[in-house]
Amino acid sequence: MTTKQKLKEAAMRLFGEKGYDGTALSEIAKEVGVKTPAIYAFYENKEDLFMTVFREAMDSYNTYVQELSGEKKKLGAKESLRRVLARQYEFYQRHREESVLVLRYVVFPPVFLKETIEQAFLNSDGLLTSIIEQFILQGMEEGSIPDQSLQPLVDAFLNVMDGLAMQYFYYTSKEVYERKLNHAFDTFWNGVSS
Amino acid sequence: MTTKQKLKEAAMRLFGEKGYDGTALSEIAKEVGVKTPAIYAFYENKEDLFMTVFREAMDSYNTYVQELSGEKKKLGAKESLRRVLARQYEFYQRHREESVLVLRYVVFPPVFLKETIEQAFLNSDGLLTSIIEQFILQGMEEGSIPDQSLQPLVDAFLNVMDGLAMQYFYYTSKEVYERKLNHAFDTFWNGVSS
Amino acid sequence: MTTKQKLKEAAMRLFGEKGYDGTALSEIAKEVGVKTPAIYAFYENKEDLFMTVFREAMDSYNTYVQELSGEKKKLGAKESLRRVLARQYEFYQRHREESVLVLRYVVFPPVFLKETIEQAFLNSDGLLTSIIEQFILQGMEEGSIPDQSLQPLVDAFLNVMDGLAMQYFYYTSKEVYERKLNHAFDTFWNGVSS
Amino acid sequence: MTTKQKLKEAAMRLFGEKGYDGTALSEIAKEVGVKTPAIYAFYENKEDLFMTVFREAMDSYNTYVQELSGEKKKLGAKESLRRVLARQYEFYQRHREESVLVLRYVVFPPVFLKETIEQAFLNSDGLLTSIIEQFILQGMEEGSIPDQSLQPLVDAFLNVMDGLAMQYFYYTSKEVYERKLNHAFDTFWNGVSS
DNA sequence: GATGAATGAGCATTCATTCAT
DNA sequence: CATGAATGAATGCTCATTCAT
């Protein structure tokens, strides 16, 4: 793997773990086995490295989420919605570094990123919203969800997702997390389908 | 107000907004109208100042939550649970700085705080759990919640709370947030009570 | 003498000798017997230190020049003009560091100083011009200088001064310099008075 | 034009404008449209590039001056001397970059150049002196200059030249400069011929 | 309590230079 | 010839911290 790629990965992990200000370029370089100035052969400066890495993580998350919409017809609404949570969980597990980074900086953006990130977040949020809407509409068509206005259900589901996002990062136990995921979803579905 | 108090407040806000590493003692001092070394008259060092401030924020949050349990008998279970969310929201609004700080460092603790914070969090979490349990039991006694095992409902409710916590910090609009809060709770209660 | 003062003097000499870019703050600090960051207790940054020092040198030169005009009546025009050169020479000798600095940066200003310096130079130049004018007028009144238009003589005298300024810095020998000064002035006066 | 030649020209301009320490090799390379290490194919290091360029500028100036001596018989002494100034002026205009460089580093040589430059300067100065001497002697033979010792007149003329050199770099206006040149020379000639 | 002076440690960044390709 | 990758050395600057006053 190229030095540039390795720098990106080290940066991803360290920026995620210790934050932008808490991560020295020298640490990133050291992890890659290179001296600090070598970074400047690939990135303009610390901010550039961070932004590159952050954008990539964000894109990776968005792509992951977007792929859900391709599968809508195969499953019932309930299973589709559960799959959304499962997929989010899968992303956290397979791309832990990206997840941490995205979550961290979406909730606590450094000043110089605030605007860019809000933009990116609204984008991603809108995408997700429309996917959820489709699944819920599907549920109404199927009859598994009674006819009612859409927004409350979408809001509730997004709330479940956000709650699970936070919990993923402070409940380290797989079992506990999966239990919480199931309980949250079951209660949600109960509320939606009755 | 004493310098010490003023330092605590400035530190609270700045540590919350810009993070531990992103906040220089000189900034805190400047906000208070004092030179940096003056801080050392009250706090051993940066870490000490941070810990003091963090602990206080955490305590403030815990106290706020704890006060809920005193009121259990006056209201029905549904209203009591809704009040929990309302109270959390109230805390965010009245003590925005404390909220940001607690949320930020519970989810992303700096290395030197990891252990302390996990302890504190488990504590707070346990407290909250038992309060929620009581309200749900009350609901079962009242008949507003069908008999069933407790944990799923508690997990679901805590998840609603966590979701709302995150959302408070990235949806800045009051109206949007309140809508999301109501929709999340209504769906939860629908799922729980049916 | 205070550290601040000592810093200024070291900066004056080093900036004059080795230029702005050729002088590291660490050198200045070292000469004063202090570590580099101590500089920041007194000056905002390198540019600030330089500007302070430069402005002071410029002021010092201007003051020196200005003092000439107070003495006009005591001497004949010829002696007064010769005294201007003598006084400039005296300034170079007594304030060698200031001289070098002023000359260096008036002729070769760094980009960030161009404007400020041009301003300061025009100021100083105007001052000097009017002093020379007075002495020449005095010469005409006395009859030592034939009536004629002023500007050619002023231009010629200022040119003598500029030439001597340059020569001071590349002819290190006192004797040679003084000879050149006398020859230049004598020829000038010959040209002016005939 | 060859890369080597282009490098020399870029170096000439940049070293003249911003000084040796203020000019990065990368800037020079960028102006030529080449990467920094390419420079090392032609020059041993920065110093070598600088010295090459400086020597060339110095030679160019010397050659220019030397060419004056070939023409001595065609004109009267006065016109010949005026031509020296005109030619110097012409050189400044046609070879502005070279002029700046020569002037800058003759007056303010960097440490590593001091010796070389003093040598070169004395050489050039001697050359110029002997040319001026010839013209003045010619004037005496012609009778346009009264018999007298040579040195004062040579010194005075060189002073005029030096003054004009300095002024060329801080009076940007062509008209002003030409006026100053004429006034300086006329006064000089007046002084010399009477 | 509070401050001015000072510092050690560290950081982002620049730059001249090297070397394999 | 020219470049990409890499580095050692240095630079300006920041920051937490100390200490005498």
Task: Set down the secondary structure blueprint.
Four copies of one chain form a homotetramer.
Chain A: H1 3-18, H2 25-32, H3 46-66, H4 77-94, H5 96-107, H6 114-142, H7 150-170, H8 174-193
Chain A binds a DNA duplex (21 and 21 nucleotides) through residues 3, 24-26, 34-38, 40-42, 45-46.
Organism (chains A, B, C, D): Paenibacillus chibensis
Protein name (chains A, B, C, D): TetR/AcrR family transcriptional regulator
Keywords (chains A, B, C, D): DNA-binding
What does this molecule look like?
Chains A, B, C, D: Residues 24-43 bind DNA. Chains A, B, C, D: It comes from Paenibacillus chibensis. Chains A, B, C, D: Keywords: DNA-binding. Chains A, B, C, D: Pfam families: TetR_N (PF00440). Chains A, B, C, D: Residues 1-61 form the HTH tetR-type domain. The structure is a homotetramer of 194-residue chains. By secondary structure, chain A is mostly helical. Chain A folds into two domains: 1-43, Orthogonal Bundle (Arc Repressor Mutant, subunit A), CATH 1.10.10; 46-193, Orthogonal Bundle (Tetracycline Repressor, domain 2). Helices cover 75% and strands 0% of the residues of chain A. The first copy, chain A, contains eight helices and no strands. Chain A has helices spanning 3-18, 25-32, 46-66, 77-94, 96-107, 114-142, 150-170, 174-193. In chain A, helix 1 (3-18) crosses helix 2, helix 3 (46-66) packs across helix 5 (96-107) and helix 6 (114-142) packs across helix 7 (150-170). The longest helix of chain A is centred in the middle third of the chain and has 29 residues, at 114-142. Chain A is elongated, with a radius of gyration of 19 Å. Chain A starts with a helix and ends with a helix. The mean pLDDT of chain A is 93. At the C-D interface, helix 5, helix 7 and helix 8 of C face helix 5, helix 7 and helix 8 of D. The structure holds a DNA duplex (21 and 21 nucleotides).
